[in-house]
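hiii, so i know i said id send this last week but things got crazy w the move. better late than never?? heres the sequnce for the chain we talked about at the cafe, plus the structure i predicted for it. fair warning i was half asleep when i ran it
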Amino acid sequence: MAYRRPGGDPTRFVVEAADEPQLNVGAFPRTGWLEAVAESDRERLRSALDGDAIDVTYRLTVDDEPTWVHERGSHTEGGDVVGYLFPAGERFESRRRLERERERLAEFASVVSHDLRNPLSVAVGNLELATELDGDAADERLNRARDALGWMDDLISDLLALAREGRTVEETTTTALEDVVRRAWRTVGDDADAALVVDGSLPTVDCDGSRLRQAFENLFRNSIEHGSAGGPPDSDDRSGPSVRIVVGPLQDGFYVADDGTGIPPEERDAVFEPGRSTADDGTGFGLAIVERIAEAHGWSVSVTEGRDGGARFDFTGVDCERCGDTDGATIGD
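okay and structure toks below
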């Protein structure tokens, strides 16, 4: 399919000649092309259009289904981009999955070699000192070694979860999202100084229920650990629970928000990086696991500011039913 982008604008796409039967030209967006591109692929398309030669693949929603397409083009003297658009096909999707697995393996090896080395050194050093000491001094060193080994155990558990949750979901079942939320809250929130509110009627989603429950547990735990430090900076009323967590529907998914201290805008792009944590006792893998679970389902997750000033995590691209109502039903506190 031959095309032209006036002025190299990523939002505009003019079909010049269509002879590709695998692409339904009639279903292509006439305006707002970028809005039809998967959110996680938009920056890659923008960057490609800013380069000298355009050679980029991305997901485009056609007939309400995401389709991989391959765009190749070049800039004209007048500033337009002209080229061809092809269906990328299943082979490209398989290659992309393999590339992601290689990236995750490299990431896994990097974390193992770096993050485990420090507590191991602490444990070995304190054990060596303990052999040279007696009484309480030796016990103190042994306790420090025990703490370091416990930290290593937490890291290993989270690393294994990170690797496991990165696998693509092969089988899903139609699941009431509120049931998953309730089960996750019973595990994490029942004994916490926190309240959970369901903001309206949660949708029914196609998902792996156990893996989605893990995502909710990690998000709830993150809100409880980081949101219990006093709430948003401009909040004077902290009567009741230390943190209030809200789960609600979106037009194409759902969100989890709290009224805690929030995440500064300059730090939001990095919150899903493995090993990143602002808590002294955090491994830094909780939110990375959340992102892996979302990606394994073919969803996107992003972080922004909630309406109460805390952090809000939006899950979009979700195949769901009954999205939209809000009536603020409290589940627990």
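btw Residues 88 and 212 are 29 Å apart (CA to CA). thought thatd interest u
miss u guys!!
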